[in-house]
Write a structure and sequence with these properties.
536 residues, 18 helices, elongated, alpha/beta, 25 strands
């Protein structure tokens, strides 16, 4: 059924919903206008009296443009159930209409909840200005809002406000900058948020934004029948290898140690859509071009399929090797000093790899492997360097003083100062001009050295000389991909994932020679000769 909302310029905004209700018989109170009445209908999940279906917005005409919505778009726009769908993610290929649905819901939220403050975020503020904001301006009648460019604000006539924010400051830069950005975000008080291209945003940033949703209407307004602010996160993404696959697709959450575990309560809604769902709104030559590409692209970016088999293109490690490693996974025998112990110390040699971090953004990781190529212990967690040094020392003395191979870049230098009296691996370097050989503690990660590290690890995988028992390292190996980003030195974790366990594991196996280890084992197994001396 179609009904109209009169604007100040006497133009008509037409909305079609399922069912036969009119604007008159969905009016809820004298304080409601047409927009708040519509939102109440959606919040209360009112049903069509003829067929019992929940009412949803099917078509919208604004600024002389008419938008017809697919099933998935309609569900995204019309869902204000913050109890069961507190976080809604629209996933789909390019042209599937997810960005339009996001913009429509922003407008509907601001019009239907007067006085609400919402956050509109992307990795970079410039991306909001160049894409999302332009789509919003096409959609919204200009008399409804005022755009304050310098402040990054959209102020609506009814008191609602959109705060635009680039989120990259919360996940990159030095520790001081990140802390400042996170503190600024924590001080915000919003009633809902919208994030376009979620695959660009890290899990910690997502969690920090969730903590800002505490804005409520007054008790007096609630008593008058005004609906409380939804406090709902609305997001879009392309199918990609990042944390939302676990959070929305597998219904898992990340615990304090960085492991994915089952959620205690399901409060997410994932809406996966195909570009073909929105075909009526796309140029036919655009559709033909996308359908002419390779099968992997079509499945992901046309049909919107979201699974790890499709998304691991560009992975450093082949699927068959990861599948081989996954067959050995098991639960740890014990947790000691927050370290996972898979095998207790034996009469053999051990090696230790360490990927240090400053402890705020990325976890630090420690991996211990034995002479048979088995990863027998690990630590992964966010700690200051002095705390990480304690974990290294604990595993060092537990596993008979293994050779420690730490990454020496950035935070690694601080760690090496704490453990330099232990058995730390030394890299040798010959000065070109003087021809003098010097030694340096730790493994310095550069583009070339990282390629050597990966190549050596891959050779061990091909020979099946490696056994890894912990599932988290296997999961990180799946999303460790080739990269052109300078910060990743040729390879690193997909956006939104971590590679700390991968790096510490590869370091533990660096310079590991299975044949040499076998020779040592054979020599140890031989009976020792007993020399007899005769004293006169």
């Amino acid at each position: 059924m179609e009904y109209s909302v009169s604007m100040k310029n006497k133009s008509k905004t037409e909305i079609k919903i399922e069912g036969g209700q009119t604007v008159d018989n969905i009016q809820h109170s004298p304080w409601d206008n047409e927009w708040t009445s519509l939102v109440k209908t959606l919040v209360d999940k009112e049903k069509d009296k003829t067929n019992g279906k929940i009412l949803r917005i099917r078509e919208l005409t604004l600024n002389g443009r008419t938008y017809s919505f697919s099933e998935k778009q309609s569900e995204f726009i019309s869902n204000f159930d913050s109890q069961n769908s507190k976080f809604i993610l629209a996933s789909g290929g390019r042209g599937s209409g997810k960005s339009l649905a996001l913009c429509v819901k922003i407008y509907l939220t601001c019009k239907g909840f007067p006085g609400i403050r919402v956050l509109l975020g992307r990795k970079n503020i410039s991306d909001i200005e160049k894409t999302t904001l332009l789509d919003l301006f096409k959609l919204m009648p200009p008399e409804d809002y005022e755009y304050r460019v310098k402040d990054g604000l959209l102020n609506f006539r009814n008191g609602s406000q959109v705060v635009m924010m680039g989120l990259d400051a919360m996940q990159s830069g030095n520790m001081g900058e990140i802390k400042k950005a996170q503190q600024k975000t924590k001080s915000m008080n919003i009633g809902s948020y919208f994030i376009d291209q979620l695959e660009e945003i890290e899990y910690d940033v997502f969690q920090a934004i969730n903590d800002t949703m505490r804005m409520t209407v007054s008790k007096e307004e609630l008593a008058r029948g005004v609906k409380d602010y939804p406090r709902q996160g609305n997001m879009t993404c392309n199918p990609a290898n990042f944390w939302a696959y676990h959070y929305f697709k597998l219904n898992e959450r990340m615990d304090e140690d960085g492991n994915w575990v089952d959620k205690k309560r399901i409060d997410t809604l994932l809406l996966e859509s195909s570009m073909l769902d929105n075909r009526a709104n796309l140029p036919e030559d655009f559709v033909r071009d996308r359908l002419s590409r390779d099968d992997n692209y079509i499945r992901r970016m046309v049909y919107g399929e979201w699974n790890t088999d499709i998304l691991t293109r560009g992975s450093v490690f082949a699927k068959e090797y990861i599948h081989y490693l996954a067959q050995s996974t098991k639960k740890p025998l014990a947790i000691e000093e927050e370290c996972e112990i898979y095998e207790q110390p034996r009469d053999t040699e051990y090696r230790m790899g360490v990927d240090p971090s400053e402890g705020l953004v990325d976890p630090s990781s420690v991996s211990v492997v034995d002479s048979a190529g088995r990863k027998v212990a690990k630590f992964n967690g966010k700690l200051p360097i002095i705390g990480l040094a304690d974990k290294v020392k604990y595993l060092y003395y537990k596993y008979k003083k293994p050779l420690i191979i730490p990454e020496s870049n950035a935070a690694g230098a601080a760690l090496i100062r704490e453990i330099r009296d232990l058995r730390v691996w030394r890299s040798k370097r010959t000065e070109y001009k003087t021809d003098i050989e010097t030694e340096r503690l730790g493994f310095r990660m550069t583009y070339d050295s990282k390629q050597q590290l990966i190549t050596h690890f891959q050779s061990l995988l091909r020979e099946k000389k490696i056994k890894i028992y912990d599932q988290k390292t296997i999961e990180e190996l799946k999303v460790f991909v080739w990269s052109n980003e300078a910060a990743q030195s040729g390879a690193g974790a997909s956006s939104g994932f971590h590679d700390d366990d991968v790096i510490s594991t590869m370091l533990a196996y660096w310079d590991f020679n299975p044949e040499k280890q076998e020779e040592v084992a054979i020599a140890r197994a031989r009976p020792s000769k007993v020399r007899r001396f005769q004293y006169i």
